[in-house]
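User: Fold this; tokens only.

Assistant: Input:
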Amino acid sequence: MANDWLSSKEAARRLGVSAATLYAYVSRGLLRSESLDGRRERRYRADDITRLKRRRDVGRKAESIAHHALDFGTPVLESALTLIEDNRLYYRGEDAASLARSAALEDVARLLWDCDDRPFAADNLPPMSAALRRAWLAAATLGPVDRCLVVLPAAAAMDHPSWVEDRPAMLEAGVRVLRLLTAAVTARPLSALPVHQQLAAAWRVPAVKAPLLRAALVLSADHEFNASAFAARVVASTGANLYGAVMAGLTALNGPRHGGLTRRVASLIEDLRDVRDVDLELVRRVRDRIYISGFGHQLYPDGDVRAATLLALLRETTPDCPEFLFAEKLAASVERLIDRRPNIDFTTVVIERVLALPKGSALALFLLGRTVGWIAHALEQAARGALIRPRARYTGPRPTG
């Protein structure tokens, strides 16, 4: 019947894609089409469109589950830290993509924490107590993120409590936390050097490529009320010190639906790196409803600006690197297939591979950058002095009698 077929314009509208993407779906066997009376105009089976739209909706639902521990968009709290608007990211009104090309993570910390250089004094390092030394030794064989999970509680027990009534003490503690976690990631002694310089030295990254580390840290610093920032903020609202707030953020980040997505991206790239036909394998995964990690973000309908910035820097710094060339090829294939562009999870893993960093470094980069944001949220919440206590929307059985 005639109404079983759709014009290309109507098919593209129903799927919410461009004509080029529609043609790519046909070439990959996801849609059937036929010419209309021998003309160039083609028509498409309506049931194919419905089936493909259902598959994509399933993928987007999986993406939402993977990215968000809370219903997207709720709860809403006021904040002066980060703005995501018109496909751009701003820290206190400063464009994060521009900062990524010039600023160090410590510069962004000063901006988000609204402070001067005093907390960043070279001698402001966590005390190496007996408990911290024991934790350091116990964590020696662990990966960088797990080392952070071990040493941070040990340091908290002996450091200044930095209660919320004392903002200067909180700022100094924030610097100590950042420097402690950097040392835990690098497995090197505590240092007051900028974070990206410590990482470059520990991971043997040439100076010409170190800006990639710096940019990744800056672009990871904050992202409004993501799951880990909200966790840190809730803990800070109870009056707990910065160590407690950062530990909450750290444990949330490590989950597979948040920062832990980088592990899934790493597996995706590793699985596809030696596949003969990447496009065919991606088609199979879409057909089997296998979630393709590292692409798309609900807050950036035109593509994650953080990823776009890092990919541009990679293109400028390592244009001929085989790992980068493969990543670009993979990203192009995914965009043609499901109309999604790379996000920051994908690009930090690409940086890990391009720079031949230790396994898990993508999440470690994200962790160190986001530590600045957790501390910023804790400071902002502490200044308000209010407890975050959402109400529940009850969905259980109604009372009887």
